[in-house]
Amino acid sequence: xxxxxxxxxxxxxxxxxxxxxxxxxxxxxxxxxxxxxxxxxxxxxxxxxxxxxxxxxxxxxxxxxxxxxxxxxxxxxxxxxxxxxxxxxxxxxxxxxxxxxxxxxxxxxxxxxxxxxxxxxxxxxxxxxxxxxxxxxxxxxxxxxxxxxxxxxxxxxxxxxxxxxxxxxxxxxxxxxxxxxxxxxxxxxxxxxxxxxxxxxxxxxxxxxxxxxxxxxxxxxxxxxxxxxxxxxxxxxxxxxxxxxxxxxxxxxxxxxxxxxxxxxxxxxxxxxxxxxxxxxxxxxxxxxxxxxxxxxxxxxxxxxxxxxxxxxxxxxxxxxxxxxxxxxxxxxxxxxxxxxxxxxxxxxxxxxxxxxxxxxxxxxxxxxxxxxxxxxxxxxxxxxxxxxxxxxxxxxxxxxxxxxxxxxxx
Length: 411
Description:
mainly alpha
């Protein structure tokens, strides 16, 4: 069957158009987090009241920040003598103001989230449910000494207060059984919970420095503490929703990406590619001379418009296989496989061999390659008698033999 084969640029154009149509018509737009969330039902949405609570907490946080700024500057100035540079004191004051502000409203929310929702902290709480004491009265005495050292050198308490604290620590630890041996394991996962209440107490202390009635000074602190729980729960609710959205997005995008990655074997893509190849092959243009010898454009495959379907299918499949045949070549090269060429096909068992690829005569190289293709080994006892029996004389096999092809058989 005679037809005009496609050039590389025509094949590239057809496959590019097929992939574009496959992406637009079959796959559609790639899923996004937004499209995934729009197709899902949120069973626990955030209400308008919760958003109002967030806005109220932000407003209270701003007020708290303004209350903390003068305290931070006063605290920073206490670290330096009166002769210190004002630039150093002011910069340290601004740093302390930032720390105080972060420890206020945002600190409450953060410690609340970590204390009640962090998986590792919750697991450690279950693993260490209570303090373990050992050592009896000796352990209690050692614990009392540790508390005494803490009070004197770290907290710098007076002697009377230190004695009271150390004595109470000794009595309590003696009653419980001695020295606590898992204090760090027990206290570390509960530290965030303790910090939540310590920050709350600290904010009460800050508010106590202002003027006004009890409600004027402390109402916003209690409101801030209460709204912290609301905002923390809101953040967890939003995080759970985003987790569901992420799972749905991952599932949808994985299906999309997997199908796009394997598009060359997708039935829908192959149907589109078939139509693209049929159009390109049918209306392919080539320049050639007409009967008058003039150079004109013509369409040598125009017969495909009226040809039978089986003929069209054969041409398209042949072109597809011709242009995708490099896959086997790539595998052979990358895997460093060896391939044995098949012997030249013969019309029947008695027909003698002729040169390959339509050559007019045998050469030394083509005759030697033919020996290899036939599976002949250099150690075989092969000579002119076998050559005369296997090769047609009209194609100069014997001259090629004498010119050097015979050297294949052990020289």
